[in-house]
Amino acid sequence: MATVTAPAPGRRRRTPLARREARWAYLFLAPWIVGFLVFYAGPMIASLWLSFTEYDVINPPEYTGLDNYRELMSDPAVARSLGNTVYYTALHVPLVMVISLGLALLLKRVGRLQGFFRTVFYLPVMTPAVAVGILFLLLLNTQDGLINRALGLVGIDGPSWTTDPGWVMPGIILMSLWSLGSTVIIYLAALQNVPRDLYEAASIDGAGPWARFRSVTLPMISGALFFTLIVNTIASLQMFTEVYTMYFGNRETQNTFNSDAASFYVIHLFQEAFQFLHMGFASAMAWLLFVIILIITLIQVKLSNRFVYYEGEDK
Amino acid sequence: MTAAVERGAAPPVPGIPPARPTVPRSAAGEGRRPVWQRVLFVAALVGAAVIFMLPFVWLVSASLRPREYVFAPGFLPVPFAPENYAEAWSAVPLLTWFGNSVVVGVAAAAAVTLSSAWVAFGFAYFRFPGRSLLFGLVLATMMLPFAVTMIPTYLIWSDLGLTDTQVPLWAGNLFGSAFYIFLLRQFLLSLPREYFEAARVDGASYPQLFWKMAFPLIRPALLVAFVFEFKASWTDLLKPLIYLRNEQLYTLPRGLKVVLDRFGYGGEQQWEIVLAGSVLATVPMIILFFLAQRHFVEGIATTGRKG
């Protein structure tokens, strides 16, 4: 079928008409090009430069060479926040993927009520992150929270999720699992696109349910698995709102132990930038984050080449 | 869009390839399974659904109980205390924040939808030197963490004297956004080119092609972009945290954070006010989802498929 894309190159030379067309093309692209220069390229260069300076907004930036980066490497607060963030990501992402796949497999088997259950799993995603933070601050309450009440019913003495430094992070991960609905929907769409004859062929070859899952389902949805791995990893390395709502931004509660245990990288960065006005240092932090995300994504892409199966000639 | 379909010019749903028809469900599969498997299946499904819904039930019911009963066991709002909402209403300018969120959300969503569609048309219709390079650059911006550009962007708005206004919360959207440009381009690419060329022959200008033809034809995709961005704006805390000082300008999430700090642990633990505010911030999103369910599901599924 013919599409909007212009005819193949070579069919015509750069005629006046083609040049006129190109002019129009750039006119359509103009907003994005302006936006790219003003809100991406320019700020990237500026923040890279700021990362080599000391800058408090009031006085002009002062060049300090690699000082910020040296400090970055030796600052225990940065190390703490980075460690917490990596810990969170390492647990959150696999848990989200496994649970979402389980839910999507359940949903796939539901008949007429599929839409209803899909909505049930997706509605938490619609809840504003601040409200999620507030809600879980109370659900995780040690004495009266719903979660410890439920644990009590099965005879477990629930931990102090929001006040015991060792339990703050598991509590946050628990909260994060409530909002996995987008991943469920992506998996469900992928599962429904697996051709039925593949399962039938596998069954005829004597494959049991587990073998069918391993050698039909997983390869056929590996593209979706890979996509959610990357997207969820990038997002969780930048976790901010829910945790900031729960444990930060409030003088009375912030100087307690739990703000340390709940310190995430972007939260620490935000505070360095906008509370302590260490704009240069915060810029260095941002660039370190960017490099970390790039490296992790590259590794994941490399791995995916080995495990992801692309149907047909697509890619 | 209807007109186009009648003329047989456009595919029934522009953009997203129709998903393969789903396997004829339950009837075929479930009936043959042993009973214990079916029981296990229903138990797992219903159990998961209950776990996901209980936080909502608790939130709404606790917001309707008097302060001393917020943490009381059970899921019923007894004793019933709807006056919590009036109390919250008079304690903080909830209505103002609500209005601010609507204004900022509509501005952000309309700006990003219009500009992204305009740019996407440029990428989909025209062939010009540097097209794939530029489109690669569009996609690359999705990888960039917000934190990298956050500080210089703040300095720009600060130099323009626009901090402590709501402008920085939406004006950046006037220049298109990578995710939506990508999404809308996919839809535009599925429209038949002959259709546009016929209009060119009839003397239509390029902006007319965009406004009169492309724009109405991709309306479902435009709605996807609009509802996604409206939700993103409605739930955003970081930007209001950076730019807004004046409480009268706060959006709901920013206001809700103040409510928590002032009445929650920071205050006298008046959780009924905090909860009522949380419900008020959440309900519009739930309604939005039910109004635009198809668009949300379609948008998410598309992103996954293109990955």
Main sheet summary of chain A? 2 strands, antiparallel
CATH architecture annotation name of the largest domain in chain A: Orthogonal Bundle
Number of domains of chain B: 1
- Unreliable stretches of chain B (pLDDT < 50, length at least 5) are 1-30
Q: Please name the CATH architecture of chain B.
A: Orthogonal Bundle
Strand segment count of chain A: 2
Order of helices and strands of chain A: HEEHHHHHHHHHHHHHHH
Instruction: Please give the share of residues in helix of chain A.
Output: over 70%
Strand content of chain B: under 5%
Total individual domains of chain A: 2
Please explain how this structure is put together.
The complex is a heterodimer of chains A (315) and B (307). With 315 residues, chain A is an all-alpha fold. Chain A has 2 domains: 16-68, no CATH class; 74-307, MetI-like (MetI-like fold, Orthogonal Bundle). Helices cover 72% and strands 1% of the residues of chain A. Chain A contains 16 helices and 2 strands. A two-stranded antiparallel sheet of chain A has the order 1-2. In chain A, a hairpin with a 7-residue loop joins strand 1 and strand 2 (62-63). In chain A, helix 4 (114-126) runs antiparallel to helix 8, helix 5 (129-139) packs across helix 12 (241-247) and helix 11 (222-237) runs antiparallel to helix 16 (279-307). The mean pLDDT of chain A is 90. Chain B is mainly alpha-helical and 307 residues long. Chain B has one domain (84-306): MetI-like fold, CATH 1.10.3720. Chain B has 16 helices and no strands. In chain B, helix 4 (83-91) crosses helix 15 and helix 5 crosses helix 9. Residues 1-30 of chain B have low confidence and may be disordered. The interface between A and B is large, with 115 and 110 residues.
